[in-house]
Amino acid sequence: MALPYAIREGLSGFRRAAFASMASTGAMAVALVLVSVFFALAIEAQEVASWLRQRVGEIEVFLDDVDDRSGQTVHERIRAQPGVAETQYISRAEAAEIFRQEFGEGAENFFDAPFLPASIRFTVSPEYANPDSLSGMAAGMAGWTHVDDVVFNQPLLVKVQKNLRLLTLGGSALATLVLLASIFLVANTIRLTIYARRLLIRTMKLVGATDRFIRLPFVIEGVLQGLVAAAIALGALAGFYVLAVRSLPQLTPPTRDELALFAALVVAAGVLLGWLGSAFSVRRFVRRVALN
Question: Given pLDDT bands bounded at 50, 70 and 90, which one contains residue 206?
C-alpha cells in the first residue's frame, strides 16, 4: 500500500505546492542545460585540439636526388608506418609549382635540382601527435635510404601541447565548479520545497508515520520533477543547437544514435538530480522536525 500512496502523493505534490515545485524543476532544468552545454563544448574542444595537434605535428621528409619511382617507394614505406594518418607525395615538378605560387614573379631564378627536391608530407593519428613520438619517428626515418632530411616544427608542437594542457586543466576546473553549483542550486531549491510542507510532515509524524513512509512521496516527486526538468532542458538544448547550426554551418551534425544517447544521458541526469536532491534534503529535514 505504501508505494501506490507514495506515487499518488508525489503526483499531487505538484498541485499542493505548485510554486515550489516549479522553482525546483526550473533549477534542475537550468542545471541540466548548463552541464549539457559545457559537456558538448568540451567534446568539440577535444576534437579541435586533436585536429590542431595533427596539423601542427605535420612531418616533411625531403628526398635526395632520386627519380619518382624511388620516391614513391619511400612514400609507400612511410604510409605503412604505424600512426601515419595522411600522406602526400610532392614531386620536383609539384614542388616547383608550389614555390612559384608562393613566391610569385622571379621565383624561377632560384630553381635548381638540389633546391627543389621531392618530398613526402604526412600527418599522424592523434595518439602519435606529441613531441616524443614525432621525434622518434623523424629520427628513425632520417636513416632511411634516399632520405636527405626530416623536419617538423617541434617548438611549435611543444607550445601547442603546453597550451592545450592548460586549457584542459582550466576547463576541468570550470566544469567541476559548474557541476557543484548546479547540485547546490538543486538541493537548496528542493529543500525550500520540502520546507513549504513542513506542517504536513509534522502531522504525519504525529500520527505515527515512519521516516521512510514520509520520505518516499517526496523522493518520487523529486524524480518526477527531474523528468520534467529533463524534458525542458532537451527543448532548450534543441533550440540552442538550431541557433548554433545557423551561426556556424561548419559544425558537424551528430548522428541519430549520438542524439539518442545524449537525450538518454540528460534524462538520466535529471532523474538522478531529482532523486539525490529530494532524498538528501528530506532525510535531513524529517529528522529535524519537532513534534511539540
Answer: confident
Residues 234 and 180 in one domain: yes
Q: Is 151 helix (H, G, I), strand (E, B) or coil?
A: strand
Same-domain check for residues 166 and 146:
no
Task: State the angle between helix axes of 18-56 and 2-16 in degrees (0 to 180), rounded to the nearest 10.
Answer: 90
Within this chain, do residues 263 and 118 fall inside the same structural domain, yes or no? Answer: no
Over the Cα atoms of the chain, what is R_g? 31
In 3D space, the residue among 172, 186, 169, 281 whose CA is nearest the CA of residue 233 turns out to be: 186
Whole-angstrom CA distances from 62 to 12, 68, 124 are 76, 13, 17
Whether 68 shows a pLDDT value over 80: the answer reads yes
Under 8 Å CB-to-CB from 56, ≥6 apart: which residues? 129, 153, 156, 157, 160
pLDDT digit string (tens) for 172-182?
A: 787 777 767 76
Residue showing cell 535531513: 284
Tens digit of pLDDT for each residue in 19-31? Answer: 777 877 888 888 8
| Interatomic CA distance for residues 63 and 120, integer angstroms | 8
